[in-house]
Amino acid sequence: MVSEVQKNNSAILRVERLSMKFGGLIAINDLNFEAKRGAITALIGPNGAGKTTVFNCITGFYKPTEGMLTMTRQNGEEYLLERMADFVITKKAKVARTFQNIRLFSGLTVLENLLVAQHNPLMLSSGYTILGLLGFPTYKKAAADAIEKARFWLEKINLVDRADDPAGDLPYGAQRRLEIARAMCTEPELLCLDEPAAGLNARESAELNKLLLDIRDETGTSILLIEHDMSVVMEISDHVVVLEYGTKISDGTPDSVKNDPKVIAAYLGVEDEEIVEMLEQAEAAGVDDITAAVDLMSTEAIHVIEETHPDAPAAALVATGPARPAKPAAATKQPGAKPAKTAAKATSAPAPAKVATAKPEAGNPAAAKTAATKTVTPVAPAAAKKPVAKPAAAKAPPVKAAPAKAPQASPIKAGATANALAAPRDGKADRLIDIKGIGPVNERKLNEHGIFHFDQIASWKKADVIAAEAYLAFDGRIAREDWIGQAKAMAKASQKKPVPGKSGGAK
Amino acid sequence: MADVQTSNPESNFAKAVKEGLVAAALALGLFLLIVGFRTDQNIRNELVLNQRWGLLAIFVLVAGFGRFFLTAYVTPWNAARAASKRAAVAKEAKEQSAFRKSFPRIGLALLFVYPFLVIAILAAYNGSLMGGLQGSLKYVDNFGIQILIYVMLAWGLNIVIGLAGLLDLGYVAFYAVGAYSYALLSSHFGLSFWLLLPMAGIFAALWGIVLGFPVLRLRGDYLAIVTLAFGEIIRLVLINWTVVTKGTFGISGIAKATLFGIPFTPGPGGFANLLGLPNSGVYYKVFLYYLILLLALLTAWVTIRLRRMPIGRAWEALREDEIACRSLGINTTTTKLTAFATGAMFGGFAGSFFAARQGFVSPESFVFLESAIILAIVVLGGMGSLVGIAIAAAVMIGGTELLRELEFLKHIFGNDFTPELYRMLLFGLAMIVVMVWKPRGFVGNREPSAFLHKRKLISSEFTKEGHG
Predict the structure, then answer these.
(1) Which H helix or E strand runs over A249?
(2) Which residues share a beta bridge with A28?
(3) Nearest neighbour of B332 by CB, restricted to A87, A107, A143
(4) What DSSP designation does B255 have?
(5) What tens digit of pLDDT does each residue of B154-195 get?
(6) What are phi and psi for residue B250, nearest 5 degrees?
(7) Of A145, A319, B174, B395, which residue is the least packed, with the fewest Cβ within 10 Å?
(8) Using DSSP, how many helices (H) and how many strands (E) does chain A show?
(9) What are the chain A neighbours of B329 within 8 Å (beta carbons)?
(10) Distance separating alpha carbons of residues A70 and A234, to the nearest angstrom
(11) Cα–Cα dist A416/A334, whole Å
């Protein structure tokens, strides 16, 4: 998407193809973004998204596994941050940072904290201590200047009165401000703030906003900040980058990001497999660009997908949760939908719908009934138990029991996600043991629980995985061995052949 | 609580009597068989049961009265003291008394007149100048010089531990480097003390850097262990490299220091002869006293100056938070190395002085115990505080020297009792007492290196000890 960032003088920091791996854990995966000069760029994302890791890479505390971090200073000098030691980054490339858990020198006074930050220029003027030790006037003057500069920042952060108190004695909000002032005393061109508003009350965070805007406007320092407090992010940032699981999911102005469904999904917690699935559906719809796929998430686009790809449960995805019976997406989205259309929707849950329409002869007890009722009956009990219904899921923790109150609203939904089959399609099950990690015993167990085909496993959601792990007595293995991914590949391979009876389409 | 206890002393007294009786009864039960009876073998190899009622009585009485005094007097006194302290704290922020403020100055003046004061007092006591001179030898040498050497060593170690927060258990190695560099270079090349004094410092500083490099990545316990090992390595090299160091025999006959070329020898050309003073060994001791005093003051002056330099602030910042230091562009590697080198340099100075004073060095003088004593002085005095460390050195070293003087102890414990042998025991006891009483040492407060409005002391609860 932004893989070839143009050389741009307006960018103070360019992050290109940044990856950071800790052993097997991928904390940041191929991240690209840039911070504009003289702007406030916010880096947001859910907990564990890798924001602080990005900071640690930028400020040299971690050496990135891959990628390039280019810092362009005002005077045109370029520094490749990934090659520099942490303290050199502050000293030469002029990047300063604060920490998520405040790291002040608590035993030094507030003033001393700010003087330590001016170590390098003072060191130079004291002739690397020797001239200063002998009492040369250059150092005396530099020391006085340093104190003046510290006073300037103390006035900015309203702490002049407490200049001679130990930093550890300050209240929390003041410590946060002091840490920012201390970072500013290194005269940075890029200031990296790691959650500056964490733990501040509303008034303090308003003050912080003012301080940051002041810093940007008066000193021209560019700011890169991590923040969870949306009031801060939305109010002051010029540009927002959203991370989730180490990947950038959105990038733009605060407003555009705020309305980005992917961001909403990331924050409100749509399960990630569904996003992957959604993207795949979008891909299948002929949209190969992921950003375009994100755009497609607007309602109209979903209709398009629905129309062209009835199999795609896109609508279900966008309506905040998958198949929440109390709020069936199809029902709300398309109040005027014809019954035929809803029936078609039923097919969007590939498996059971197929049972219903394509294989009445499959020995299903409900097979004798009409297609429409068929969709409802075999699955309804499951739906009563759990929205992401399949018989196996009935074993899932009872937390999901709430939707049971509205079973009547969700026959389609229930059908849409329940992917347990009473019997294999065409009477012939896929060889599940082809999936690495599934042995004959597990295959038998899976079959007992109505899982016969790769595409069933492929369409598993988090809740399904939990349920399956419950009866397989596995713990985390499904995710670890990527059954879903494997199953998807295999399902795709088998789908190359036309599946008979996949006829309940919209056309 | 305190009020309740002090307002009704009657009930308190009764309670104390009761507790004392209980404690005595408990002690009786406990010690009856352990202390009260003792089996000995007689000449025919038979076991004889001795009854020791007197000793048992002493045990029981000590327990009973101890408990009584504790409950009746110590506890209420403590409580009252704590209450008054709280009240005082609430009344006003700690305002230093005039004595405490001017203490360093008074102490310094006393240190400068100390030898003459001793000579004058002893001369008056003995009725002759000669008697005063000879009598003062012990006080100038054993007390004055000995304590000042440790003051200087502790001030040097204070740079590494107190300021930079790097726990160094092998500090005596630098002392040894200084001593041996003077001993070897003066006996082989005949170089003078005044040339070798700075050289010894430089050598020690180099060794400080040599030690510093491998331990840069270590923190806390690991750093302590490696520095400890370094100290032992130096000592073992001194023992085993017999060709150069003469091993355990040590190097003797080291040249004495001179005052601008004037030797302190009896006879023509000597110091006493030139000034027309009666011959005495005390002039050299007084000279050495002022030498080590000036060296120690140099250490203090450099430490005070360095604390106001960016490097000193960086050391203290390093002690507080190393990661934050790096985020501010401070090169922690060179910062640590300079701390090691500076501390080691003063150790080297002290070492070369030690060699000149003793005229003899051997590896015996540089055992781990010395490092431990220096460290103990720094910790007792309060890390980072020069005055506190000086007091701690006076108490610890002066105290052990004083033990030799306590002749009356022989009358109590018998003639074969040698109090010096118990000095380590007392040393340890004193440390425990001080650490319970003042966990951050005599002077735990930190003085800021710069101020905007008013210099306020920083309470020890905010400063960190560093973690390597």
Answers:
(1) strand A247-252
(2) A20
(3) A87
(4) P
(5) 999 999 998 888 888 889 999 999 999 999 998 888 888 888
(6) 80, 175
(7) A145
(8) 26, 10
(9) 87-91, 119-120, 186
(10) 26
(11) 16
- Interface contact flag, A164 B448, Cβ < 8 Å: yes
- In chain B, the residue whose alpha carbon lies closest to the alpha carbon of A150 is B452
Closest of B292, B283, B289 to residue B263, by C-alpha: B283
CA A115, CA B448: separation in Å to the nearest integer? 12
Whether residue B263 is predicted with pLDDT greater than 80 in this model: the reply is no
* Bridge pairing between strands A78-80 and A95-97: unpaired
Q: How far, rounded to the nearest angstrom, does the alpha carbon of residue B137 sit from its chain's CA centroid? A: 22
CA B55/CA B61 separation, integer angstroms:
10
**Length reported for chain A:** 507
Token reading at A29: 């995966």
Structural domains of chain A in order of their starting residue, each with its CATH number: 1-94+189-268 (3.40.50.300), 104-186 (no CATH), 270-495 (no CATH)
Question: What angle do helix axes B282-308 and B98-126 make, rounded to 10 degrees?
Answer: 170
Residue A127: how many CB atoms within 10 A of its CB? Answer: 14
CA torsion, ordered B455, B314, B168, B349, to nearest 10 deg? -80
User: What is the C-alpha end-to-end distance of chain A, expressed in Å?
Assistant: 34
- Given a cut of 50, the residues of chain A with pLDDT beneath it are 1-8, 291-296, 298-302, 304-305, 312-417, 497-507
Integer Cα distance of A457 and A454 in angstroms: 5
For residue A313, which phi and psi values (nearest 5 degrees)?
-85, 45
- Do residues B395 and B426 touch, judged by C-beta distance below 8 A? no
Which tokens belong to B7? 């307002």
- Map tokens 């103070």 to a residue: A12
Q: Where are the beta strands (DSSP E) in B358-434?
A: 360-361
Strands B47-51 and B37-41: antiparallel
Could you tell me if A103 lies within 8 Å of chain B, comparing CB atoms?
yes
CA distance A24 to chain B (A): 26
Question: Who contacts A243 (Cβ-Cβ below 8 Å, separation ≥6)?
Answer: A28, A31, A43, A44, A45, A49, A50, A51, A54, A249
Token pair in block for residue A360:
């009445």
